[in-house]
Amino acid sequence: MATEEQLIASAKEGSDSAFSELVERYQKRLFRFLLTRCRSQADVEDAIQDTFVNAYRYIGSYNPRWSFSTWLYRIALRNAAKNSQRVEEIDADSSPTPTDPLEACIVASERENLWLTARRLLSTDAYSAMWLRYAEDMSVKDIARSLGKPMSWTKVTLMRSRRRLSTELSGEQEAAASGEAYG
Amino acid sequence: MDKMERQLREDAGRIKADLSPELQERIRASLESTRPADQTPRKTQTPGTTLWWASSLTGLAAAALVILLINWNSANGPIEDEPVSATPGAALSIQSNFPLIVETAEWATPLEEELKNLQSDLEKARENVERDLRISF
Q: Could you give the ipTM of this predicted complex?
């Protein structure tokens, strides 16, 4: 089985099969990430398609100094932002509220999925930073690079977002405990 | 890993992310119809590099010119050893502009006269002293 570096090198030399293998490896992760960033299922599909097309087109300019996932997520974020801008322009005219793609894809459980809570509480960039840190295990440096933000901003945002989520969680637990006591 | 981190990871896994076969086919088709923009990595030439090359070439050209001049001089004949002059060249050029053969200053005549005058004065004074002494004793 070829390593990621080998696949990237082959793709840079023009191997379509190597790039297809990279698509195979990253499509689920990217799709899941884009579900949290886009407003509809159609936007998610457009964004993931544009991401892979752009990556394929510009694979020659990829700098191996940065990890491939960082580069790919940066492209995905740009496409998601472009799509959401386009959707806002359409919404300004009139259209029915689309179904939230994230909610549609969450497996039912007893409690609310923490990522739904996070999306309700945090800004879009803070949410993406949290996702890349805890769902993708990216380093702070790579997150900063993906989001196009300074390292200091990324560190502070991660810390504040964690604190905010933690406060929300402890509040919910207290409310649940008091509910049980009265019940 | 604390409780919240663990919960975030678990909840990320609870998000279904299966691409439909239609979407996969759509991606594959769009990739097939796309050509890579440029396979060769872009080479960036900074002004510093250009300057370095320019200065290196200038230095090499200057060194080549000096070597060429030295070789050309040696080909025209060996350089003869010139006697080393104690007088600097600049001083010699000044000397050549002024005639250094001058007449001897005639200081002797007036000094001799002065000496004779003094001696005669001294003689007169001595005679006066002797006369005075004779008068006294």
A: 0.79
